[in-house]
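Predicting holo structure, zinc ion bound.
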Amino acid sequence: MFTLLFLTFLLADILIRLWLASRQIRHVQANRNQVPAAFAERISLHSHQRAADYTVDRVQLGMVERVVEAGVLVCLTLLGGLQFLDQAIARAIEHELLRQLALIGAVLAILGVIGLPFAAWSKFRLEARYGFNRMTPGLFISDTVKSIILAMLLGAPLAAAVLWVMQNTGTAWTWWAWALWVFFNLLILWLFPTVIAPIFNKFTPLDNPELAQRINALAERSGFPLSGLYVMDGSRRSAHGNAYFTGFGKARRIVFFDTLLNRLDNDEVEAVLAHELGHFHHKHILRRIILSFALSLVFFQALGWLSGQVWFYTGLGVMPQFGRPNDALALILFFLVIPVFTFWVGPLASRLSRRDEFQADAYAVRQSSAPALASALVKLYDDNAATLTPDPLHSAFYDSHPPAAVRIQRLGPASSPAHG
Ligand SMILES: [Zn+2]
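Done. Tokens:
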């Protein structure tokens, strides 16, 4: 029964994704030869067509990746891959905790190896074709190695602690595991700006007194306690631009990608930053963190119940081992399978995210300037080759940011790019 339910959801997931992808491709191609009227004065036909081709290529790569992922999922579960790994590792390793850690490590390694060609293809073929990739193969390899080491240093102790708690705290383990999870996430948030991000990028203080002064003034009138403005060498990897703020309390800082500063003038940078501060002002980030902790509590309770049901294992092609803990098995099955069932929540999450974006835009208009934000957005959409003509249904399902036309229209008539 559970097998059938799982297969039905998996099939529906793939069919819906492929259907949405084909809609997106058709819609973008149908609008390929005409820049939407509102953007006609600022975006050339050449750029518009480049954005269309880039979007189509990305959607196609995504389709292939999703089909492969689904195949791997079926191989690991119903076709016995996980069962085989579990037994092979049980024969090789006596120590209970090490055996279970090795099983988790093996599954992650398999998923990582399968994901690697897609990541490489995306960077060196797709992004490179449109001039976005700045990464050398050497940097790609060193990034991959660093990520693996980091994942082992941070992930292995977490996994070991969760497995220990599952084994030793009785039925209360779901609460302890959740507490560990929350602690781990807060730790990462805390370590990210000062320890983790500098492993991959160089951060230098912003060396532009005029811009720094304007941003400090903006931060002050927005009530945002700021302790540093940094520029990140994003151009080492990609031509895509971005800005974000990060860190807690006294370590709170704003980070600009150098690629963003190279493209936008001071008015536009200020407007983009005012948008980011809008997220802070409306407590979007805090709310997202709290929501994710609440959801993970629900997931741990669900996992606690499922891990005690034999059909949960057998329905997914695994025989639990008798007389030995199957905690790692339960964790792996849960994290592999749960996205198939939560896929349907995606549109709701996207919708909430788009609502936040509108709020942040409105805040930016109050604190900064609507025309500057509009022209910054047009430049960013253009530079990132984001399509101006997405399929409405595809966009409603996936997009965390509203389509360009809708977003700029909301900024008010004065900011319409067609009117300068
Ligand atoms: Zn935003």
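The radius of gyration is 24 Å.
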